[in-house]
Amino acid sequence: MILKASVFIILFTLFVHWETSETKSQRDIGRASLPPRGWNSYDSFTWTISEEEFLKNSELVAQRLKPHGYQYVVVDFLWYRKKVKGAYTDSYGYDVFDEWGRMVPDPGRWPSSQGGKGFSEVAQKVHSMGLKFGIHVMRGLSKQAFDANTLILDTTTGKAYEEAGRQWRAQDIGIKERTCPWMRNGFMSVNIKLGAGKAFLRSLHQQYADWGVDFVKHDCVFGDDLDLDEITVVSEVLNELSRPIIYSLSPGTNANPTMAKDVSGLVNMYRVTGDDWDKWKDITAHFNVARDFSAANLVGVKGLKGKSWPDLDMLPLGWLTDPGSHYGPHRNCNLSLDEQRTQVTLWSMVRSPLIFGGDMRKLDDTTFSLLTNPTLLEINWFSSNNMEFHYVTGSLSSSGKHGLTHHSEDREKINVLETRVLALRTCRDVKANGWSTKVLDNDLEQVCWEEKSNKRKAPFCLYKRAALSASEGEMVYKHQNHGNLHLLVTERREYCFGATSNRKLTAKELSRGSFSRCRSHTNQMWELNYNGTLVNSYSGLCATMDIVKASSGGVRSWLATGRRGEIYLAFFNLNNQVTEMLAKISDIAKAIHTKSSKCTGREVWSGNNLGAIKDSISLSVKAHGCALFVLNCK
């Protein structure tokens, strides 16, 4: 009896320890103290998903992925748009909104929303599955609500917002000159300097909380579309709500660490690239970004009521649709298995949120094993000292030539192409001070960027002219100060230079700005300051001309330490052919500040046991593939 009692006590103690650890992990997810995991509808449905399709995917997430920490299920954009002939991603006149100008679910696709219920019944069903419910929202106010001039709700009184003796409406707060450039028929900024503007944003997120929303993905407010004022107000509103809501920003085209430092404490996760799709170049575009954000110590820092995480975007694996499609999932992922392994390994080593985008109804065994690989999930949640590891060499097996080799000057480097592109930075960045005025004949003037490091290089110049005024048939930007310049490629053309693209960009695409017919949209308005900065009125960011080095291949490596003392080492072969990669144990020890010299280990994807490792680790890595080592060193 004593032996049985002792065994029972030991087993009970182990169970309580496991349950406490698991419960703590689940509780931490809710505070974003760990990188969030979940599922999002965009990669498989774009905007067309229905209530039935969403709930079935949620049910399968609960059954198959929830045991592995995937907790959020998110409806992506345009859930308020009627799925009828003529409706598409930037159509006008098909959205459903309430008397206060707030979007509500399309009852044709979301029948449980009828009778003013919104997403409340969907959220209840999701919660009954043990999951958290999320939605995608756009910046500010919809153009339809603006044109309808709806009243603004004051959530403190339940009535129309009143100030200065009158009721306030949508046209009092909407800024038509600040519509989202890639969705101009959709949404515009609101003037948050007005009490009514803040009241409108408060009414939106109070409604989301009332529905039972746990996660808000806020679009067209970060990266090139930065609207720090709106992010700040929304963060303040969410902080005041009694219901905890994870705050996510999207997309992050041209985002950089300096920009991120302004928002990381206000949110829980934020995208750091354009949209990631199942293209190899989209994956490779994330390596430099991941390096820069990790080096800036922005991974897992203090955020909104928890922590914040740079987000490399959803995982477009499994059964998918196409970007901008009006149809649901209809094809397999275009990435090879080696490329998929590279993606999930990088996302895990970087500790990015893991949000799966494929249709759960056709989740195959290979995709499931990638999403639930125990080593990757351990690294994603519990590793530390995550960094790009520079001391790795790569030689192309067929020719013996070396690929990209960090900090080894005796190696032959791969070809690198340099491209000069427009970039947007915070105006505090010293690299933004490089613009000046050049006076030409016939009273013409140009605004020019001159390379500080290369005076011999011809400056990049655009012709300038006064911005359009109301007398020329355009609305004046009445709410805030704005730039007074339009920039043109020639003195005669009627096409002006805008800071951001007129379409949504993918991760591999660099924003070079765009030329379109001149109008008074703030995306085309600029102000040249005496200190040499050129400020864009849409985002408040400053323009620079950056030199971007685009390589066609090479090798990369990442390093991290585990909570039990293990070391994680990842090799990534970006070349188009098999590459022999090598790292020295002494260099690994220096990077993690240890004197370890004797190691044993295994490689995750092959399952091979490496045995005792003497001086170095080397492996032939397939084209676009990776290797992941778990090392135990003394």
What is the number of helices?
A: 15
Largest sheet: 9 strands, mixed
What is the CA-based Rg, rounded?
26 Å
Low-pLDDT runs of 5+ residues are 1-23, 399-416, 470-481
The N- to C-terminal Cα distance equals 43 Å
Percentage of residues in strands: 25-35%
**Helix-strand makeup class:** alpha+beta
Average of the residue pLDDT scores: 88
Which percent range fits the helix content? Answer: 10-25%
Strand order of the largest sheet: 14-15-13-12-11-3-2-1-18
- What's the total count of β strands? 37
Principal-axes geometry comes out as globular
Protein name: Alpha-galactosidase
Keywords: Disulfide bond, Glycosidase, Hydrolase, Signal
Enzyme class: hydrolase
GO molecular function, one term: alpha-galactosidase activity
Description:
By secondary structure, the chain is α+β, with helices and mostly antiparallel strands. Helices cover 24% and strands 27% of the residues. The protein contains 15 helices and 37 strands. Strands 14-15-13-12-11-3-2-1-18 form a nine-stranded mixed sheet. A six-stranded antiparallel sheet has the order 19-31-32-37-34-35, with helices on both faces. Strands 22-23-24-25 form a four-stranded antiparallel sheet, with no helix packed on it. Strand 14 (301-303) and strand 15 (306-311) form a beta hairpin. Helix 7 (195-211) packs across helix 8 and helix 12 (337-350) runs parallel beside helix 14 (374-382). The longest helix is centred in the first third of the chain and has 29 residues, at 2-30. The radius of gyration is 26 Å and the shape is globular. The relative contact order is 0.10. Residues 1-23, 399-416 and 470-481 have low confidence and may be disordered.
